[in-house]
């Protein structure tokens, strides 16, 4: 799909505030509200914009403990198997295949260390997991929504 600088700016504005009206966005990109809506509809149809969601502050709902866990798996474990297994755990924020020694990297959030330990034990119990290596997050320094590189004006 061909995207121009206006499309990129619209996406950046939606990432910053998905509740912004088409008129508000239009004022910032010099388009009418209907023109912005047409562009957003086109971006959604093309799969560039997958949806709109609320971003929750984990601490506000009591999930203040997080860790990154390297998963080491049996030889024939597929990314699809890792995906299915990690989706079973509500504490999993994200799961990624990675380069290096580990087969996958899993981001966990929990209410406290005890909850994190329970989540880790359940993750380790998956049949394909041979071992894990965990790193507990001490503080979040930078966290942004999906960033879209903006094009120069």
UniProtKB/TrEMBL annotation:
<dbReference type="GO" id="GO:0043200">
    <property type="term" value="P:response to amino acid"/>
</dbReference>
<dbReference type="Pfam" id="PF01037">
    <property type="entry name" value="AsnC_trans_reg"/>
</dbReference>
<protein>
    <submittedName>
        <fullName>AsnC family transcriptional regulator</fullName>
    </submittedName>
</protein>
<dbReference type="InterPro" id="IPR000485">
    <property type="entry name" value="AsnC-type_HTH_dom"/>
</dbReference>
<keyword id="KW-0238">DNA-binding</keyword>
<dbReference type="GO" id="GO:0005829">
    <property type="term" value="C:cytosol"/>
</dbReference>
<keyword id="KW-0805">Transcription regulation</keyword>
<dbReference type="InterPro" id="IPR011008">
    <property type="entry name" value="Dimeric_a/b-barrel"/>
</dbReference>
<keyword id="KW-0804">Transcription</keyword>
<dbReference type="Pfam" id="PF13404">
    <property type="entry name" value="HTH_AsnC-type"/>
</dbReference>
<dbReference type="GO" id="GO:0043565">
    <property type="term" value="F:sequence-specific DNA binding"/>
</dbReference>
<feature type="domain" description="HTH asnC-type">
    <location>
        <begin position="3"/>
        <end position="64"/>
    </location>
</feature>
<dbReference type="InterPro" id="IPR036388">
    <property type="entry name" value="WH-like_DNA-bd_sf"/>
</dbReference>
<dbReference type="InterPro" id="IPR019888">
    <property type="entry name" value="Tscrpt_reg_AsnC-like"/>
</dbReference>
<dbReference type="InterPro" id="IPR019887">
    <property type="entry name" value="Tscrpt_reg_AsnC/Lrp_C"/>
</dbReference>
<dbReference type="InterPro" id="IPR036390">
    <property type="entry name" value="WH_DNA-bd_sf"/>
</dbReference>
């Amino acid at each position: 799909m061909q995207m121009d600088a206006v499309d990129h700016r619209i996406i950046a504005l939606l990432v910053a505030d998905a509740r912004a009206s088409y008129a508000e966005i239009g004022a910032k990109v010099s388009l009418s509200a209907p023109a912005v809506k047409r562009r957003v509809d086109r971006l959604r149809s093309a799969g560039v914009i997958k949806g709109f969601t609320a971003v929750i502050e984990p601490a506000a709902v009591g999930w203040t403990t997080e860790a990154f866990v390297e998963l080491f798996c049996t030889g024939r474990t597929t990314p699809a198997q890792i995906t299915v297994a990690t989706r079973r755990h509500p504490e999993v924020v994200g799961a990624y295949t990675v380069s290096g020694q580990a087969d996958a990297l899993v981001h966990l959030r929990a209410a406290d260390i005890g909850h994190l330990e329970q989540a880790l034990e359940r993750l380790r119990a998956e049949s394909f997991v041979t071992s894990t290596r965990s790193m507990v997050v001490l503080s979040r320094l930078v966290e942004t929504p999906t960033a879209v590189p903006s094009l120069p004006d």
